[in-house]
Structure formats: C-alpha cells, structure tokens
Amino acid sequence: APKRRFRVLRWTWRLTYMSALAGLGYMGYGIWEMRNPEDQPEPDPNKKTLVILGTGWGSVSLLKKLDTENYNVIVVSPRNYFLFTPLLPSCTTGTIEHRSIMEPIRNFLRHKKAAVKFYEAEATKIDYEKKVVYINDQSEIKGDISATEVPFDMLVVGVGAENATFGELRALPISIKLTISGIPGVREHGLFLKEVGDAQRIRNRIMDCCETATFKDQDPEEVKRLLHMVVVGGGPTGVEFAGELQDFFNSDLKKWIPEIKDHFHVTLVEALPNVLPMFSKQLIDYTERTFKEETITIRTKTMVKNVTEKYIEAESTGPDGKKQTERLPYGLLVWATGNAVRPVVKDLMEQIPAQKDSRRGLAVNEYLVVKGTENVWAVGDCAVANYAPTAQVAAQEGAFLARMFNNMAKTEAIEAQLAQLSEAQEKAPNQEAREKVFQEIKELHKRLRRVKQIGPFQYSHQGSLAYIGSDKAVADITWYAGNLATGGTITYFFWRSAYLSMCFSTRNRVLVAVDWLKAKVFGRDVSRV
Ligand code: FAD
Ligand code: NAI
User: GO molecular function: any one (predicted)?
Assistant: First the structure.
C-alpha cells in the first residue's frame, strides 16, 4: 500500500508539474502573440466607410467584436487608449496607478484581422446632410494640418458624456429640477472624476492640501479648511471616491503626516434624501452606516448652489422643513454630479428635427439607430435608450452593433452571390445545370434568413457594484428572476475579483493585481508630482 500511495503521489506531482508547464507555455504564447501582431491587410477604400467616434466602453466593445475586413473602419478619438473607469476612483489615491487601467488603442487595433485607421482627434462637428465629420487635433504638438474632415457612409457616435455643472443640457435624475442655469464657480474651483487627468489632479491636490496645511505657522482655521475634503454628488462616483479617500487617510496619510490626523475630514454632499439612489434600500442604509463608522459626514438634502475658491454655499432643508443656506470651507472639492451632453452631440441633435424633444442625448430606436437619421448609430452615455448611463449598458450596446454590422456585411455578400447565381441560372445550358444552381440558391436563401434574424437590442442587467471604503463593497446582483442585495467584506472580495476579471487585457489584470499588492505591502505613495 505505501508503494501504491507513493506512485499516486508521484503521478499527481508529475501531472501538476506538466499542467503548470502547459499553463506557462500557453501564457507565454499569448504574450508572444500580443507582442508580435501579424501583418494586416490595409483598409479597403472600396468598402463602406464606417467611422467610429470615441474609444470608450461603447466604441471599444463594438471594435472588439467587429469583423473589420468588411468595412473601411476609421476611429476618431482624442484619447488613444481605452480606460477601465470602474477602477478610476482608486487612482485618485494611488491604490492603483492610472496606467494599469489604460489599454493603448493602437495595440488593440493592431490585432484586428484587417487594419483600422485611428486619428487622435476630437470630432468638433458632425454634418449629417453632407455625411462628414470635422475633426481637430487637440494635442500639444500639431502638424501643418490639424483640422480636417472625414466622410462616412456609416457613423457610430460613442463620445460619452461630459461632467454636469448644470450650465448645460443635462442628464439629471428627474427628481431634481434645477431652475438655475449653471452653478457658478464649479469649473474654476472643482475637480471632476471622469478621465485619467482628473484622477491625477485629485491625487496631487490631496497631497498639496496636506503639505500646505502643515506649512509653518499656518492658522488653525486655515488648517481645518485645507484638510476638509468635500465631495459633491452621492452617486456611485462620489461614494466610491469618498470611500477611497478615507481609506487613504486611515492607512497612510495619518501615519506619514501625524500632524493632520485631528483635522482631516471627508464630507459627502447630496441633494437627494439619500446616497446611491440606484441601490436597494438596505444597501443605502448599510453605506450610510459604514460612512458614519468611517467618520465620513454625509449631508443629504443639501444642494450646492455656489462655489468659490475657498468655500461652497449649500442650501439644505432642516428637520422643520425650512431651507437654510450655509458655507462649507474646503481644501479639495470633487464634483461628481453626473453627466451632461457633449457639444458635438448637442449640435447633431439640433440638425435632426426628430431629436428636438430629446434632452439627455441622442434618442435612439431599438436598433440603436439615431432617430430621424439613416446610417447613424449611437452607443453609451451619449445615447438615450432608457437605460442608466453605465459601462455595462455601453458595452452591451457596442457588442450588439458589432453583431449587427457583421450580419449586414454577410447579408450584402450573400445578396451579391444570389445575384450572380440568378444570372448563372438563366444562362445554364440544360435542366440539370439549372437544377444544381437552383439548389445553391435555395441554400443561400436559407442562410440569408438565418443571418437576417437579429432581434432588437435588449439590455441584460447583471447587477450594480460599488466600493464604499474600509474593505467593504455593496452589490445588487441579478440572481435568476430576483435580486441579491449584499454588502460587506466578502462582497468586497467579489467586487475585486469581478473587476479584475473584467479588466481589458491580461496585462491590465496583472498590473492591477500588482498595484493592490504594492499598496498593501508598502502603502500608497504620498509624493506630489
Ligand atoms: P466613455 O467610456 O466615456 O468614452 C467616450 C469616448 O469618446 C472617450 O474615448 C473620449 O475620449 C471620446 N470622445 C469624447 N469627445 C469626443 C469627440 N468630440 N470626438 C471623438 N471622441 C470623443 N459604469 C459601470 O457600469 N460600472 C462601474 O463601476 C462604473 N464606474 C465608473 C467610475 C467612474 C469614476 C466613472 C466616471 C464612470 C463609471 N461608470 C461605471 C460609468 C461608465 O464609465 C460610463 O457609463 C461609460 O464609460 C460610458 O461609455 P461610453 O463609451 O459611452 O463613454
Ligand atoms: P449620478 O448621476 O449617479 O449621481 C449624481 C448625484 O449628484 C445625484 O445623486 C444628484 O442628486 C447629486 N447632485 C446633483 N447636483 C447636485 C448639487 N448641486 N448638490 C448636491 N448634489 C447634487 O452621477 P455619477 O455618480 O457620476 O454616475 C454617473 C453614471 O455612472 C451613473 O449612471 C452611475 O450609475 C455610473 N457609475 C456607476 C458606478 C458603479 O456602478 N460602481 C460607479 C460610478 C459611476
């Protein structure tokens, strides 16, 4: 018996060893393949020109699944990378380095079957009648030509949204009807959290506030102001950022700069009666309780109306129902009050009569066609299809369009083949040859019917997840026909593994995992650059 046991052990060891080797080989090949893309056929200008605006969730999900050999594909975006936004709040405190959640669009496009043209530029105007997009190089280095036009046969608008400051058309929860035309001072003094640059600015500002607060002979009131971190907007962006910031203070800042520990304070301001309105009631309560334990102050029913360099003015409703205005001094102000429509989208909406009643973006039909247009589609935050403006929706919309475009190309190819076969049938020398062609035509018609069978877009909600700080997360997960609401540390591990698996590439996954480990072992980096 011991001999047999030894043999089993030896074989188990060999198998483990061999599978590890196979795994390593597979990974190695994957990396080699990634680093050595094959030559691609150039885009075929005789094919229809498909112009895709943006390199965010919607557009990249479309590009991922699109058979690029069927079209002459052109991508235009001021950002030459894809950004995994769900982990962006972690970049504001250095838990994750921003490059770990960026994927260069060039690398990704080089792996498509047929080449795709990419222009790093902003679409400044879409002329629907002329079927032309005007583009502008907004980068620092400009060549002799920095503005030009790109004609299109088909156009996908995936430019996302900009930050709401309420001076523009906005995508707002209907419950707040702001009568004011814009909140003064937000753009000048507040920081947003949408892009990599925003996260870097916030990271620097946090450290600047801490270092300035410890400047020699600083007045105690001024120290308090500088260390007051105010977040406006209790949606998931505001909540996740507030949680990350408090974590940063608890695990690192107060260790390295003990002088600030009695004054550093995070306040979250929300106009509605509670934070995270899209989550279930028990998770809202859980989040509010957790914030209380973490000493983050939540000010609900408080609407910011004015922003100055050193304080915000907010109107709140007291327990007696009376409105009062107060001043909250701040050192850092992060403005996370949702989305507004981009100017290029607004301009397109104005050109199309069918869009005149749309306020929050391009109204699309169930096939994501921009209403009132032909051959123009919209995905993600700039499209209004009655879904929340989330990455989940944008990604599913992009994938749907890719399937539809692939099918459209297949349909056209089959129809061309059918036309040829009909001709061949007419010219067939005898009955036998005619019958043979007839059978081929029948088969093709069957294929055509199958290919054309693509239903309208249907969103499948997988659930909502948010990190709330102190290694806790909340999750509303769609579970069979019902909903599972859960919050806590286990949910946090689920949040981590879900987002890790959703990262764009293996490279991103490895970098994010290493960043998490680095932050745990060495703490976050508190240098200001
Ligand atoms: P984006 O991803 O914003 O991409 C827009 C693209 O268009 C960008 O590449 C941009 O550079 C480009 N662009 C902009 N202007 C122009 C122009 N004029 N011409 C050409 N290109 C242009 N959603 C979730 O589901 N789960 C989450 O956990 C989550 N976390 C988030 C965290 C943060 C901090 C933020 C800000 C958002 C989060 N979201 C999350 C929401 C999600 O990021 C958006 O819904 C999603 O990015 C929308 O995808 P999109 O393709 O429409 O736009
Ligand atoms: P949001 O629109 O979800 O929330 C903004 C909040 O700001 C609202 O609750 C609103 O009442 C409040 N507000 C507006 N004006 C105000 C004022 N003047 N004073 C005080 N409060 C004010 O915006 P957010 O969080 O930026 O999210 C945008 C989209 O991205 C949403 O669809 C969200 O679901 C999605 N997202 C999802 C995440 C996740 O699933 N974890 C994370 C981040 C964003």
Answer: NADH dehydrogenase (quinone) (non-electrogenic) activity
Token code pair at residue 253:
């800042």
Residue 414, in any domain of the structure: no
d(CA 471, CA 490) in angstroms, rounded, equals: 9
Segment 376-429, tens digit of pLDDT = 999 999 999 999 999 999 999 999 999 999 999 999 889 999 999 999 988 888
Confidence check on the interface: ipTM exceeds 0.90, yes or no = yes
160 lines ligand 2 (CB under 6 A): no
Choosing from 55, 57, 244 the residue with most ligand 1 atoms within 8 A of its CB, the one to mutate for a pocket test is: 57
Looking at residue 291, its amino acid is: F
| 239 CA distance to ligand 2 middle (Å) | 9
* 245, containing H or E segment: helix 236-248
Lowest mean pLDDT among 16-30, 73-87, 389-403, 507-521: 16-30
333 and 348 part of one domain? no
Q: Are residues 334 and 188 in the same domain?
A: yes
Task: Give tens-digit pLDDT for 11-55.
Answer: 999 999 999 999 999 888 888 888 999 999 998 889 999 999 999
Q: Which domain holds residue 204?
A: 175-339
273: amino acid identity, one letter: P
Give the Cα separation of 176 and 327 in Å (integer).
Answer: 21
Q: Which residues of 107-143 are buried (b: 16+ CB within 10 A; e: fewer)?
A: ebbbebebbbebbbbbbeebebeebbbbbbbeeeeee
Summary mean pLDDT of the chain: 94
Task: Quote the tokens at residue 96.
Answer: 């994750």
172 alpha carbon – ligand 1 mean position (Å): 16
Residue 199 shares a structural domain with residue 307: yes
CATH number at 199 reads 3.50.50.100
Q: How far is CA 398 from the centre of its chain?
A: 12
